[in-house]
Amino acid sequence: MKIWVSLLLSCVLSVPVSAATLKIPMSFEYMALDGQPIKRNFFKHQSELELTQGPHKIALRYNDLVADRISDIDRKISSSPFVVAFNAEAGKEYQLAPTGELFNKDPDAYAERPAVIITLNGQQVPFETAYTDAEESTLLGRLFGDTPTQNIDEAAIAATATTTAAATSSIAATTPSAADTATTADTATTNVKSQSAATTTPEQMLQYWWQQADEKTRREFLSWAVNQL
User: Quick count: other Cβ atoms within 10 Å of Cβ 63?
Assistant: First the structure.
């Protein structure tokens, strides 16, 4: 009898524990997990991240294309990396979503300090948020050698590698208010158009980079272009 009990216990204990998952909408992008970079693919959005049971810190950023108010061309808006820290339970499916009115009404203001919530079965779970000051280098900045001292990937890795979210001097910790949990939203998938290098004209290349650039880069380019006239 004892042998059968021992065998039963060994079978139960040997059953692998299923991983937890965290899902994000198209308007967000994973960057690092617990001090390790997350490989990103320009052509494929990673919406789900597997997590082992226990505490985790995930760096991500708001990264979306929004309709330009002046032209018909969509423009890119990206935030600095920010970190969410929470305890994951094995087998649970967590959802991260934007919250607050700024997400829909003013994407530029939202990108300055993205507000999010994490839910499990529709109920908010306890978590902490921390924000970095790292900025993505612009196209003109790279051309003229004006690049940030720490890029966004380095900042994301460093932020998730610390023992606490507030341990990095450039990070300010915050927790979502009750009012922020009232509104959640998601954005539709944007289509990526590819062109053959053999048929790409200079005008098409310029249009492509204009579409990829953020508002700051566009202002820098226009200022530079005017000076060339």
Answer: 19
Model confidence over 106-160: pLDDT tens digits? 999 999 999 999 999 999 999 999 998 877 654 444 444 445 445 777 778 888 8
Lookup result for tokens 């692998």: 16
- Could you tell me the pTM of the whole model? 0.62
The tokens describing 140, both together, are: 């003109």
CA distance 153 to 188: 25
Residue 106, Ramachandran bin (φ over 0: left; ψ between -120 and 50: alpha; else beta): beta
Instruction: Please name the residue ranges forming H helices in the chain.
Output: 2-14, 102-105, 107-112, 139-143, 152-161, 202-212, 215-228
Domain ranges of the chain: 17-190
- The residue count of the chain comes to 229
Q: 75 vs 213, 223, 226, CA distance in Å? A: 7, 18, 21
Spatial CB neighbours of 109, under 8 Å, sequence gap ≥ 6: 102
Question: CA angle, corner 35, sides to 31 and 39, nearest 5?
Answer: 35
